[in-house]
Amino acid sequence: MSSETGSHDNVSDHDPNEKLPERRDEAHEAEKDPGHGAEAALAEDPFRDPGLPPHEHRIQDVDERAAKRSERTVALYFVISMLATVGFIASYVAFPIEQIVYIWPLGHISALNFALGMTLGVALLGIGIGAVHWARTLMSDVELADERHPVEAEPELKRKVLADFRQGAQESALGRRKLVRNTMFGALALLPLSSVVLLRDLGPLPEDKLRHTFWEKGLMLINENTGEPLKPEDVPVGSLAFARPEGLEPEDHEFNTEIAKAALMLVRIQPEDIKDKKALDWSHEGVLAYSKICTHVGCPVSLYEQQTHHVLCPCHQSTFDLSDGARVLFGPAGHALPQLRISVNDEGFLQADGDFAEPVGPSFWERGA
């Protein structure tokens, strides 16, 4: 009995809150390293949320001189981007497109393409590096944890998101770091100029080429099928013929470019059936000459209905009345087919009395009403 009592006394005399030596060591380690306890807990339960590690301040957070150095570094990258954009535009003007240079290890390449690629790459790289360096050194890097929310947010959550956004904008120091802000805006404002300059590579400026065709006063109408000049009797009533300007030959280098605007169709209608007075005045003995280019997207108009004097574009079914100034009856075409004023020369061949009075083909932004 005495031994049992002594044993019982030993147990009861022990303080249950007293830490055993092993537990004292663990507590001591946890005090020295706050993450030690989290690691131990994670080892016991691998599915337990370990939480966020303790936040470590950057040197820029505690030393304003270091922050200023980072600000100047970010601004330097943005300035490099701006200078590269200016270099891009200058390269486009300075280097002729035919100039070839040798650059190791690329070999012989276009000086213009190399200069444009390098300057544009540096411009984009400067903005990217500046933004990353800004985010890593000057913006707030405090870790935040938030729970997932339904797609349709509650009003309270919306207010929280807006508040977080305002807080993030404030912590980004965009308003306080004026040097970073101004150089970033300058780089972003100059960079789109590169795209504007690249539009020049779409081709030469049209100038007034859209308003004029190969036709001019005195040029005979040449039959597209026979290659011979046309006379009024070559276009019988109810028929449709196609013509090109005299002097424009299929073997010419610019033939496709010019015929795309100058293609002509001829139709002969009894003069009493022509409703539009201007169309009648510009015809010769009922022979009417209209542009063959549809005013919707430029398809060749070619399907003629003899009884109604309607002509149909096969692409999108725009329908024009040739007896009434080729006005649009149906379809997406925006305006009537332009008419070419014709007459006959001393030899009895049909000839143009000038160019079309208005641009042919689809509408464009500079075209007048």
Largest sheet, in brief, is: 4 strands, antiparallel
Into how many domains do the coordinates divide? 3
CATH superfamily of the largest domain: Rieske [2Fe-2S] iron-sulphur domain
Regions with little confidence, pLDDT below 50 for 5+ residues: 1-24
Shape: elongated
The count of helical stretches stands at: 11
* Broad structural category: alpha+beta
Describe the strand arrangement of the main beta sheet, using strand numbers: 3-4-5-6
What is the name of the CATH class of the largest domain? Answer: Mainly Beta
Over the alpha carbons, how many angstroms does the gyration radius reach?
41 Å
Overall average residue pLDDT: 84
CATH topology of the largest domain: Rieske Iron-sulfur Protein
Query: How much β-strand is present in the residues?
Result: 5-15%
Give the strand tally: 12
Architecture per CATH nomenclature, i.e. the level-2 architecture of the largest domain: 3-layer Sandwich
Helical amount: 25-40%
Strand and helix order: HHHHHEEHHHHEEHEHEEEEEEE
Could you give the distance between the termini? 121 Å
